Amino acid sequence: MARTLFDKIWDSHVVQQIEEGPTQLYIDRLYCHEVTSPQAFSGLRARGLKCFRPNQIFCMPDHNIPTHDQDKPIEDSVSRNQVETFDKNVTDFGLNYFPMMHPKNGIIHVVGPEQGLSLPGMTIVCGDSHTSTHGAMGAVAFGIGTSEVEMVMASQCILQTKPKSMRITIDGTLSKGVTAKDVALYMMMKMTTSGATGYFVEYAGSAIRSLSMEGRLTLCNLSIEMGARGGMIAPDEVTFDYLKGRAYAPKGEDWDKAVAYWKTLKSEDDAVFDKEVVFDAADIQPMITYGTNPGLGMKINEHIPCVDTPSFKKSLDYMGFKEGECLLGKKIDYVFLGACTNGRIEDFRMFASMVEGKRKADHVTAWLVPGSWSVKKQIEEEGLEMILNNAGFEVRQPGCSACLAMNDDKIPSGKYAVSTSNRNFEGRQGPGARTLLASPLVAAAAAITGVITDPRELM
């Protein structure tokens, strides 16, 4: 029977199928950060176990770390304890470790691809829902719970029920000012945050193939926000060009062999998916959210819809918006560029291209946070930092930052933040914070004008 890309990778990693039960699946790469690993390490200690294959586990702090003065002790006691505990655990168990200030440190979902640790055909897990990001490499990547982190540490395997398959096809050409972030927010607007629940999604079509590697990573990152178990894109020349020469990517003859195998990683022409969804690229415009989940979004020049449900009204009350309202011209207070969604070099290039020769609005506080030290280095080498500084912006040190406010970067209560991160839940960016999810171009336009602005007007 013809197989999908997901089937091919899943099937090649099955250790055993438990009768009337889950699959025992072999895991190629486990990523760990400081938030979801302490209990896993404690469990191993309690059972007197070591990590089964420590060379396949890579660790780095990212959630709790500050985005300034990383060479000094962390001021917040809770964050400091998290990071120090992580340091000890990783050292005790002899795992690969990129600590704060290490040149390979950063947000784990940014570092994995850019270091060539995430490769086509792999199974990749992490105690973090946005592990779906790595599916852009042509991998089966998904988030797991802390008890499952312990399971993978101890056995390099995990028990999983195989999800259903969905293919989302987007054909056509993306319009001016439309980014991968807009594509994702558009799909969530159409499908809601539960539209892909129970499925593993493969993205296909000419519009998807036209995306850069960074754009594909953004798209797959947000798969979880539609309820999907994960998202993936078949590897192609864009993937191979991106990976070649990366620190942990195969070299020499091993590279040639790897590429030959990676080229087989695609869904067969007559493969059948459990569900097919099709969108037209021409219908996608710059997007912005207005509510308290990523599916409550709209095209930036449209009006908030009227939906007569208690949860919808509660969401608008929290945001301080009304049904039928257009958000263009709405004053904002903060702009956040970064996160595992939009903290890559392409995102900073887009932001810089929009603000070059202009000035940041005086009342706007902007946090520009690279996803890794490698990205920060590129920002400096490409002259982007000078452009940003001249426009009144400062590039901070890498970390998750204001994506989830587990560090010092918190949006004050009641303030509006145009954010390139992945979630806009109540209090996600700080107690009482009001988050509007958008692309780097929309964020840059808002930072310059001080109000929600269609970026196409400034392009």
Describe this structure in words.
The chain has a five-stranded parallel beta sheet. A four-stranded parallel beta sheet has the order 11-10-9-12. A four-stranded parallel beta sheet has the order 16-15-17-18, with helices on one face. It has helices spanning 5-12, 38-47, 77-93, 108-114, 146-155, 180-191, 206-209, 213-221, 237-243, 252-262, 310-319, 339-342, 345-355, 373-381, 384-390, 440-449; strands at residues 14-17, 23-26, 29-32, 57-59, 96-97, 123-126, 140-143, 157-160, 164-171, 199-204, 230-232, 275-280, 287-289, 297-299, 334-337, 365-368, 416-419, 434-437. A hairpin with a 5-residue loop joins strand 1 and strand 2. It has two domains: 1-285, Aconitase, domain 3 (2-Layer Sandwich), CATH 3.30.499.10; 290-457, 2-Layer Sandwich (Aconitase, domain 3). The protein is of the alpha/beta class. Helix 6 runs parallel beside helix 8 (213-221) and helix 13 (345-355) runs parallel beside helix 16 (440-449). The mean pLDDT is 98. The protein is 32% helix and 16% strand.
Mean pLDDT: 98
Q: Tell me about the biggest sheet?
A: 5 strands, parallel
Contiguous runs where pLDDT drops below 50 for at least 5 residues: none
Estimated share of beta-strand residues: 15-25%
CATH topology of the largest domain: Aconitase, domain 3
Distance between the termini: 49 Å
Give the overall silhouette.
globular
CATH architecture of the largest domain: 2-Layer Sandwich
Tally of strands: 18
Helix and strand composition category: alpha/beta
Task: Determine the CATH superfamily of the largest domain.
Answer: Aconitase, domain 3
Strand order within the widest beta sheet: 5-4-3-6-7
Number of domains: 2
How many distinct helices? Answer: 16
Q: State the helicity in percent bands.
A: 25-40%
